[in-house]
Fold this sequence. Notes:
68 residues, alpha+beta, two-stranded antiparallel ribbon
Amino acid sequence: MKVIFHLEENKIIRIEYVNLKGKKNFSPAMMRDLKKLVDLFKEKMVSDFITLVIEQKPIHNTIIISKL
């Protein structure tokens, strides 16, 4: 599964979920969990992507140890 964040002026305006060719599709339960995870961490994911890829600065790992 590919998760695409559509941004406008550094704000998330839409999130797109795309199945990958040749890969098994997510079950409805897995999609619910993925969407819940993305919703909880979307701002951090985008911020970390900008820091790592655009600014080329290191980021710190986030470890999730609780249930969503």
